[in-house]
Amino acid sequence: MKIAILPGDGIGPEIMAEAVRVLRALDLPGVELHDGLVGAAAWRAHGHPLPPETLALMRECDAILFGAVGDPACDGLERHLRPEQAVLGMRKELELFANLRPAKVFPGLEAHSSLRPEVAGAIDLMIVRELNGDVYFGKKGMRTTAEGQREGYDIMSYSGSEVRRIAHVAFRTAQGRSGKLCSVDKANVLETSQLWRDVMIEVGAEYPDVTLEHMYVDNAAMQLVRAPGKFDTIVTGNLFGDILSDQASMCVGSIGLLASASLGAEQTAFGTKGAYEPIHGSAPDIAGKGLANPVAMILSAAMMLRHSFSLEAEAARIEAAVASALNAGALGADLGGDMGTVAIGDAVLAALG
Ligand code: NAD
Ligand code: IPM
Ligand code: MN
């Protein structure tokens, strides 16, 4: 069971260290951890955010634990050299097209949500975000118009097959939950979204046990703070999913709490090949201070055990330890507490027993 450990930039190495401690504490037989460089760290060492040796490691391993990439010092670089290209390149090269982003309020943390506790307490949703298409990967560029103005463009597009494969993941995910799927789009304005909606309906015919509803993204953003408990499974495109999942994190209490799994079609001897990362970034404002909440990273490792290694009991064990540590007050500054990264890691390890 080979795992690529890619800490990346900013708080990435700090939170990864805690996730690795938790993994080692489980003492799973046959697990090998292989370190690699991504993001600004890789660009500094090798001149590229996703060097060939890292990509080879990603291909070789059964799963990837990914910290975060991004460094303000790289904002002026040509786009293909920026740290963010590491995460985008990984998703595209490995065809990790399905991003699962669960958001659930931890018992005892209801009052830490940006929402009223009784509204927050009902949150238990799963965002299924498409990860290989949309405006992220369409033709993009910068040109000068006839009038001499600079003009930037990014083409938003989806093919039917790209929507179909994420639709199947979403319907199957909804089947495993409460059978309610909400597809979020902007079909009142965008052709991409009209196709998205048509395909969702078409695929839905194969899942009569799932109730499909459609919602425009602006309304979804509003409903997510009005009554988040009404959502179960949400399926949406790359850009809308990026935005709605950050929003969902504050409904739960902190962006430092939400994990994710990025999956494709590839099966290994142990499960589905995937990359696992927090939904947040490299948090340059708190990097190096020992203040980052490692929970999203630790929960990402739990998702890895579940999806890539079929170790459900071990995944649940980590999740229970995190829930119990949080409930006992292992809170960092992001949740109004005063515990640092390592202290929160210690609390999770203690709860693991
Ligand atoms: P961010 O998620 O890094 O940070 C947003 C805010 O949340 C900051 O105030 C930060 O301190 C806080 N925060 C984030 N994670 C936290 C944690 N674990 N504990 C406590 N507080 C936390 O988003 P940003 O500031 O917009 O982006 C910073 C950099 O990260 C950029 O270069 C961006 O492109 C990159 N980024 C990378 C990823 C990724 O690697 N998957 C994801 C998002 C952003
Ligand atoms: C995320 C991040 C990435 C995205 C960036 C860093 C490319 O925001 O994983 O949510 O937009 O997908
Ligand atoms: Mn994001």
Short description:
The protein has 353 residues and is α/β, with parallel strands linked by helices. The protein has 12 helices and 12 strands.
- CATH architectural group of the largest domain: 3-Layer(aba) Sandwich
The portion of residues forming beta strands comes to 15-25%
Major sheet details: 10 strands, mixed
The overall pLDDT average reads: 98
- The CATH homologous superfamily of the largest domain: Isopropylmalate Dehydrogenase
Please give the domain count.
2
Sequence of secondary-structure elements: EHEHHEHEHEEEHEHEHEHEEHHH
Number of extended strands: 12
DSSP helical segment count: 12
Which runs of at least 5 residues are low in confidence (pLDDT < 50)? none
- Please name the CATH topology of the largest domain: Isopropylmalate Dehydrogenase
Explain how this protein is built:
This protein has 353 residues and is α/β, with parallel strands linked by helices. It folds into 2 domains: 177 residues, Isopropylmalate Dehydrogenase; 143 residues, Isopropylmalate Dehydrogenase (3-Layer(aba) Sandwich). 40% of the residues lie in helices and 21% in strands. It contains 12 helices and 12 strands. Strands 2-1-3-12-11-4-5-10-8-9 form a 10-stranded mixed sheet, with helices on both faces. A two-stranded antiparallel sheet has the order 6-7. Helix 1 links the parallel strand 1 and strand 2. Helix 1 packs parallel to helix 12, helix 6 crosses helix 7 and helix 8 packs parallel to helix 9. The model has no long low-confidence stretch (mean pLDDT 98). Bound molecules: nicotinamide-adenine-dinucleotide, 3-isopropylmalic acid and manganese (II) ion. InterPro entries: IsoCit/isopropylmalate_DH_CS, IsoPropMal-DH-like_dom, Isopropylmalate_DH. One of its GO terms (molecular function) is magnesium ion binding. Its cofactor is Mn(2+); Mg(2+). It holds the Pfam family Iso_dh.
